[in-house]
Structures are given as C-alpha cells and as structure tokens.
Amino acid sequence: MNKFKLFYLLLAAPLLLNVSCSKDEPEPEPEVTYKKPVASTRTTLIETPAGLQNSTDPNAAMATAWMGIANGLAAYGSSFTIPENAQTGGDKSDGTVYFWTYGGYSYWMTFTEFADKYVWKYEYAFPNTTRFTFIEAEELKTGKEGSWAIYSPEGTHPVLWDYDWTINASNDFSAEMMWYGDDDSESIKFLVLDKADNSGYFKMFEGAVQIVQVSWNANGSGSWWVKDGSTTISGSWN
Q: Which of the four, 3, 41, 97, 110, has the lowest number of CB atoms within 10 Å?
C-alpha cells in the first residue's frame, strides 16, 4: 500500500491510550485527580517553516508533506479528553478507571498517579470484539519528558507508533517518533527539534538511511534536502 495512504488511514483511526506498570513501580498515590498530558496540548509537533511551504519545488513539497504526517501524530492528543458522562471506578492501587460508551462502542481510560509521574491507559471495544489497548503513555510530573506507544490491532508489529519527547532547561522541545507499519522492515523514524529561539530541524529516516532533512534558523531562513535513491536534491530559502 502507498505509504502516504497508509499514514492517513492510520491517523483517521480512533485514538486511545495505555501505560502498564512493572511490579517494581512505587505504590500509586491516593485521591487522584484526572489531568491530560502536557504533550496532548500540542496541536503540532513542529511548525513547518513558511519558506519551505512557499517553495515551488516539488521535492520541497515532498519534505513539507512528510512534516505534515509527523505532525499528524499530535491528533492523538484528543484521546485524553474524558467526557462529562464518564463513570469512575477501579481500585486505587490500579489507578482510576473512567468508562463511557458512544455509538455502541465502549471506552476505558485508566489514570494513575505515582510520586514522580502520571500514566494513562486508553482502551476500547467495538461490538463483538475483545477489549483492546490502543495507546500507552507516561509523563513526568515536571511536564518536561514523556512517551506514548500506539498499538496496532492488526499489524504484525504490535507497536504502530513510538513517541518520546523532552523539554530541556532552555525550553527546547525535541522528539523522536518511530512508525513501524506492518513490520520492522518498513520502519520510519522522525526526529524534530523546536528550539526556544525559533530555530530547529526535521529529519526523516527510512530504516537506517536518512532521506529528508529540513533545517531553519532563528531569523526564518533555512535549507532542505531530500534523497531519492542515489540522488540528493536540495534547496534553501531566506
């Protein structure tokens, strides 16, 4: 299947979430109040530079399209919103479980607070299907580091997306996203850096081979290159 088509199909899927805890995790704190991850408030992972968007070069347009697909991962953040009619329950030692139904589907969000972090598990069940965990996530209470794992109910690789991000002392945001597709042989990695001074970069790897890079400066200028087989096409903007 065309990679672009598959990406868009996946981003249109229902968005859900889960984080499991190992046996040596500290005991959860009582009286948990639900909150959404800081990362879920980002509407995009990284802004596409205006100079790149305005380029008439079709290869620049390809780089822009890949950046758009990586940014599509941010859409999963809407899954962390709990409807007002959700019921609550569960043992505090296992976190608070929020349950609701919509259109014949059933949804569960399990939220657990530990001494240093929050974890979320979002599950769903369609009619005549078993309950499935779609996303796992955790985030430090500082709001400076976190990770999501998005699972595939059908793919041969259990994880569809891995997303790890950090914000450093200078308030620079960096993230690594890995898309596995149907199996590891189709893995695509995205690296983004969004610095507080408005400079940054976007890199894309197909397997171990880097095929796209977009870099920009604080003044708005930048450059890009795209690798097509043995040919590398590049450009810049002011």
A: 41
Closest to 115 measured CA to CA, from 93, 95, 141? 141
Handedness of CA 76, 80, 86, 92 (dihedral sign): positive
Bridging pattern class, strands 117-125 and 209-216: unpaired
pLDDT tens digits, residue range 15-49?
A: 433 333 334 555 554 556 899 999 999 888 888 88
Provide φ and ψ at 54, rounded to 5°.
Answer: -85, -5
Is 63 among the domain residues?
yes
Strand-pair partners of 236: 223
Quick check: helix, strand or coil at residue 98? strand
pTM for the predicted model, two decimal places: 0.81
Give me the number of domains the chain comprises: 1
